[in-house]
Automatic annotation (TrEMBL), chains A, B, C, D:
<dbReference type="Pfam" id="PF13977">
    <property type="entry name" value="TetR_C_6"/>
</dbReference>
<keyword id="KW-0678">Repressor</keyword>
<dbReference type="Pfam" id="PF00440">
    <property type="entry name" value="TetR_N"/>
</dbReference>
<feature type="DNA-binding region" description="H-T-H motif">
    <location>
        <begin position="34"/>
        <end position="53"/>
    </location>
</feature>
<keyword id="KW-0238">DNA-binding</keyword>
<dbReference type="InterPro" id="IPR001647">
    <property type="entry name" value="HTH_TetR"/>
</dbReference>
<dbReference type="InterPro" id="IPR009057">
    <property type="entry name" value="Homeodomain-like_sf"/>
</dbReference>
<feature type="domain" description="HTH tetR-type">
    <location>
        <begin position="11"/>
        <end position="71"/>
    </location>
</feature>
<dbReference type="InterPro" id="IPR039538">
    <property type="entry name" value="BetI_C"/>
</dbReference>
<protein>
    <submittedName>
        <fullName>AcrR family transcriptional regulator</fullName>
    </submittedName>
</protein>
<keyword id="KW-0805">Transcription regulation</keyword>
<keyword id="KW-0804">Transcription</keyword>
<dbReference type="InterPro" id="IPR036271">
    <property type="entry name" value="Tet_transcr_reg_TetR-rel_C_sf"/>
</dbReference>
Length: 202, 202, 202, 202
DNA sequence: TATGAATGAGCTTTCATTCAT
DNA sequence: TATGAATGAAAGCTCATTCAT
């Protein structure tokens, strides 16, 4: 291996680690998953992992950061193709509808993510991170609603922030319920989408 | 102190352990909290704790069970004083509204409880327990809605199960958001209550 | 329970404890068997057991002592009915032949007993005890052989001590082999008996 | 020391652990000896020991396996130099005669080994192992006797299996007796050797 | 005497992290 | 940079023994 290595190479390596870490955390939970699990899953040596990340927590944090970035980028990209507020909201709902709630990988990821939130109760750094993510998403929704109000699509009298909260509250709630195999995930989401849209449409 | 201690005494001891356990789990999370933490918090010796509970998991499980029982009893008792479906739903919303979202103990409990749900993804026994709890609460709500439909208080055309889900989804979502200090917990809940009631009223 | 209790009562209680202790040690081995096992098996409370024995080791020691006494008494009694040396030796061989080598209780007991011997390597008190037992049995055999020599039944030229050793060595060896289910315990013992008797007969 | 240590290095390390383990087990017995004892004796860290062996039981098992292999190899090698059955049997007797019965290390090993046998009463895996060892040794002896019969050195009428058993029974018995410092180990063994050979010679 | 809850030292085992190569 | 053997603190749990009643 060359003593000097491109940034690109490093990025790729970190990504590999992150992918394996996510898989391991998803399968066993953050605490129960061990560095050796990540070693086994990634094929990267323990020493190497510690060259890229200074601790297990560090991996965890980068995982959330990277994932948040990806998610935001994805949405932004999709939104560039959409113009009306209602279309955007519809798109977001559909994003969650077009998902197999029982897909193991998805479930694993959901677990990791919400564990992270509760973990954050006890760690300031992580709390700040999670709060930032939440505020990003909230702002996104609030902007859409305000845009919709200006365009006359959305009722003027409703509080954009409150309705932005309502949106993410429903997503969070539905995600939690998706943990239960017998939940009517799709039906519920369809209903939530319909009533939410009716409720806000001007 | 021996010999032959009353059942009452034992119950009290278990309750002490549970109280300390909840405090420790709330502060550090289930995995990170140690038996020694519970020892320190409760003043009860390690050996004694293991006389009452056969493992840390066992404590965790009893914690959820006991809490669920208390919660269900409380609600059942209150419901006996209420008769219309709308009153009952209002009562439930108010139950969550009349809470300080930033109360440390409550936050701790919420963290422990939702961690439990995600933990359950990886442990069948716990999953069964959590599912049972969910189904209890779901049934409770469904029954209220059906009762309301029969009494003509609630729209006949809506699916009781779906709306029961919607209720708990909102509660879960709001509970998660309450982790963030800057969330407008009360305002959002008040709005959710109002729109939910309007939506279902016949 | 009366504050003053007869010696007889105490003896009976100790015997109960010893019986249960033997059963437990036989099943799990001395170290693995717990006082609670003995409590469960005997129905006698833990505190009570400690009234009669000051430690687990103490029980172990009394077990061997008592057992040795019983065994010696038994043999002595039987020997009173026999007169020739050859008859006595025959009786001893038959004592071991008339046994089901795979009887669980017997196997348990054999295990406990030999464990004791090896345990004794590390504990002077126990070593003294075990040595004393060995010497008792050795003397018993040596006396028989000498008696046989005087009576002209047994060859004069053989060393009584050496042949006494040989006898117990074979018994020990056979006992160990009996641990293996597929050992031809009876056939081997029958052969050992025959050749031993032939070897010593005058 | 990493990276990529030779197999040889690993073997040496395992051997070190085994040597220390044997010493500790010999001194205190398997159950009473602790991993920390092995750490102290070997100077190898606890974590490292667990890198090479996954449990205390595992060490115990490898100890027996390794020892059995060495013993069998040793015998096989020596046997290649010997041809007559009587020579081989003589060699085996002498192998036990040429030993200091009070040598601490030997005594330790004997204790560990026989404890193992009795331990095996309660553990199927270990029982299988010990049974296999016993059958190996039995077969070895039986083959020698049969070879001797074919060559006319050994009486044709005696049952090879029974006499193979007799041989090992005597070795076991003598080994047990060697625990007692005052046993005439050498004299007894010499006598056993002489009478056994006379008994079987054709 | 009898009881069994209480105790805590001590056990085996795990695992994040380090560091010599 | 890459490797993986080494480390040891810390975890969950057991159990002989004590002692208040």
């Amino acid at each position: 291996m060359p003593p000097i290595v491109s940034e690109e190479y490093k990025e790729k390596k970190k990504e590999q680690i992150l992918t394996s870490a996510l898989a391991c955390f998803a399968q066993k939970g953050f605490t129960a998953a061990t560095i050796d699990d990540i070693v086994a899953h990634s094929g990267i040596s323990k020493g190497s992992i510690y060259n890229y990340y200074k601790s297990k927590d560090d991996i965890y944090i980068d995982l959330l950061n990277t994932n948040t970035s990806h998610y935001m980028e994805q949405i932004t990209e999709q939104f560039s193709k959409l113009h009306s507020a209602i279309d955007k909201i519809t798109f977001l709902f559909d994003h969650y509808i077009n998902v197999d709630p029982q897909d193991e990988q998805r479930l694993g990821y959901v677990s990791v993510f919400y564990e992270f939130i509760f973990h954050s109760t006890r760690d300031e750094d992580i709390h700040a991170l999670v709060t930032k993510r939440k505020n990003h998403l909230l702002k996104l929704m609030k902007d859409i609603i305000e845009q919709g109000q200006q365009a006359g699509e959305v009722k003027k009298e409703l509080d954009p922030e409150l309705y932005a909260y309502k949106f993410w509250i429903m997503i969070d709630g539905v995600s939690i319920q998706s943990v239960f195999a017998d939940s009517p995930y799709h039906n519920v989401l369809a209903m939530l989408k319909q009533t939410y849209l009716e409720e806000i449409k001007g």
